Amino acid sequence: MPQSLAKILVHTVFSTKDRRPYLRDPALRDELHRYLGGILTNLDCQPVIVGGVQDHVHLLSVLSRTCPPADMVKEVKRGSSLWIKQRDPALRGFSWQNGYGIFSIGFSQIKEVRDYIAGQEAHHRKVSFQDELRALLRRYEIAFDERYVWD
After folding, report:
1. How far apart are the C-alpha atoms of 58 and 136, rounded to whole Å?
2. 94: helix, coil or strand?
3. Mean pLDDT of the chain, nearest integer
C-alpha cells in the first residue's frame, strides 16, 4: 500500500493532582475543554468530544498514526497546565496527576462513549472518580494496585 492509513479511537481520562476541584467554574471548564480539543487538533489527533467535571477530564479522540499515545497525553497535559496557570493567578498551583488511563474503543462504540462523556455532570452525582476509574480498569481487564493508582 503506497499510503499509510489509520483510525484508532481512544478514550483518555486523567485527574487533577490529588483530585483537587480546580475546575469548579463551569465557564473555565468549558474553555479548558475547548483548549484541550485545540491541542489534540494541533497534534493531528482529531477530538470527538472533550468533557469532565471539577477534578478530571475525558477525551475521546482519533489517535494520529504519527503520535504515540504517551506523547499525546504528555502534550495535552503540559499545554493545558501552562494555559490554566497563566489564565488565572489563583490557579498557579494547578497540576494534573502523573498518570492517566487510555483505552481503545471500537468504531461502533463512539456514540456510547460520546454520550458517557457528555453526561459526566449527572454521572458524578452518583459515582466518584475513583469508582469510575476502577470500573474502567475492570472493564478493560487491567490489573491495578490501589496503592499506585491515586496520587
Report:
1. 12
2. coil
3. 93
